[in-house]
Amino acid sequence: QAVVDFERLGEHAAAFQGHDVGFCCLGTTRAKAGADGFVRVDRDYVAQAAELARAGGCKHFVLQSSRGANARSRFLYLRVKGEVENLVQAVGFDHCTILRPAVLLCKRQESRPMEWIAQQFLGAVAHLFPTAYSVPVEVVARAMVACALQPGEGKVKVLENGAIHELGKA
């Protein structure tokens, strides 16, 4: 494990050397970082990390994105997620797996009242429709590992929420 300064990520290229698979779950919120900070973290840092990983020999990059990611979206969050998906694909990994989970169900240390309310509601809905609107972060993590162990055919693979649930159960 290496601690890096994302503002000087290029100075930490050695941390990205010699890995076959790269996992990226990096992200922040607009509320926490502002619009410019959100773009810097969720797009720019991720794209630079992918480039460093590829230069360091990484063959398979596994990226956590978001349901609805679209580089042409009017919504900043979905647009940035779509842009970073395109940037990561353009790096040229042998395999690139993009996971697009719905609302992530997890316990957070910081207080996000609206997110907490949404998670309570979606947690209850998940009992009726387990793969429709949300996914526990543990399931996403297991799906990411499964993708790395069995990358499958093709250069780019995109997994939507239902597929993440299926793969994360294994």
UniProtKB/TrEMBL annotation:
Ranges of residues in domain NAD(P)-binding: 4-150
GO biological process, one term: import into nucleus
One Pfam family from the record: NAD_binding_10
GO molecular function, a single term: catalytic activity
GO cellular component: cytoplasm
Known partners and oligomeric status: Monomer. Forms homodimers during oxidative stress. Interacts (via N-terminus) with elongation factor EEF1A1 (via middle-region); the interaction is direct and competes with EEF1A1 binding to guanyl-nucleotide exchange factor EEF1B2, thereby inhibiting GDP for GTP exchange and reactivation of EEF1A1. Interacts with nuclear transport receptors XPO4, IPO5/RANBP5, IPO7, IPO9 and KPNB1 as well as GCN1L1/GCN1 and LRPPRC probably through their HEAT repeats. Binds NCOA5/CIA.
Protein name according to UniProt: Protein HTATIP2
Organism of derivation: Motacilla alba (White wagtail)
